[in-house]
């Protein structure tokens, strides 16, 4: 059985801070969580990705599935760092980046993507809703399935 609600857990690896509030946490064991899903055994640095002409859907495949730690920049050396949720969104499981209309990345642009890929080894625990002063984290389990009756 599982119970929905917000519960406090230890942060297993120090990976969760104020910047991660609102993001997903992953179960490490029965009493701790991490910001990492345990995937990403292979790192890719500054892979050039070209988006199609402006008359086409603005989506580009990375060539790998199960991606994590995605960072999109304007040049291979860094340049402008684009913002996920404002400039682009990522389908992490499929390994596809979609441009957001009105974002800072122009149609038909080439960007440089740094990411990790590999199958995840941890399950989603829930969304990070708060941290307390002792370093523990509050996780919202509302997305968990209801128990069968």
In short:
The chain is mainly β and 149 residues long.
Notes on the structure:
By secondary structure, the chain is mainly beta. It has two domains: 52 residues, no CATH class; 76 residues, no CATH class. It is built from no helices and twelve strands. It has a five-stranded mixed β-barrel. The protein is elongated.
Strand content: over 45%
Q: Gyration radius, to the nearest Å? A: 17 Å
Helix and strand element order: EEEEEEEEEEEE
Helix and strand composition category? mainly beta
Low-confidence segments = 144-149
Work out the helix count: 0
Q: Average pLDDT, to the nearest integer?
A: 85
Main beta-sheet annotation: 5 strands, mixed, barrel
Overall helicity: under 10%
Number of separate structural domains: 2
Q: What is the strand arrangement across the widest sheet?
A: 1-3-2-11-12
Ends distance: 10 Å
Number of strands: 12
Shape: elongated
Structure characteristics:
149 residues; 5-stranded mixed beta barrel; 4-stranded antiparallel beta sheet
Secondary structure elements and pairings:
Layout: E1 6-11, E2 24-29, E3 32-34, E4 42-50, E5 59-61, E6 67-75, E7 78-81, E8 88-91, E9 96-99, E10 110-117, E11 124-131, E12 137-140
Parallel strand pairs: 1-3
Antiparallel strand pairs: 1-12, 2-3, 2-11, 4-10, 5-9, 6-7, 6-10, 8-9, 11-12
């Amino acid at each position: 059985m599982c119970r929905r609600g917000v519960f406090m857990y230890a942060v297993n690896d120090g990976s969760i801070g104020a910047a991660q509030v609102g993001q997903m946490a992953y179960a490490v064991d029965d009493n701790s969580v991490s910001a990492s899903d345990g995937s990403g055994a292979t790192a890719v640095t500054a892979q050039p990705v070209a988006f199609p002409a402006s008359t086409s859907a603005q989506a580009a495949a990375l060539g790998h599935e199960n991606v994590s730690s995605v960072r999109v920049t304007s040049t291979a050396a860094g340049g402008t760092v684009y913002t996920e949720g404002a400039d682009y969104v990522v389908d992490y499981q499929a390994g596809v980046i979609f441009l957001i209309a009105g974002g800072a990345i122009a149609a038909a642009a080439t960007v440089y993507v740094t990411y990790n890929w590999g199958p995840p080894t941890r399950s989603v625990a829930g969304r990070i809703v708060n941290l307390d002063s002792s370093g523990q984290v509050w996780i919202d389990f509302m997305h968990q399935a209801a128990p069968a009756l």
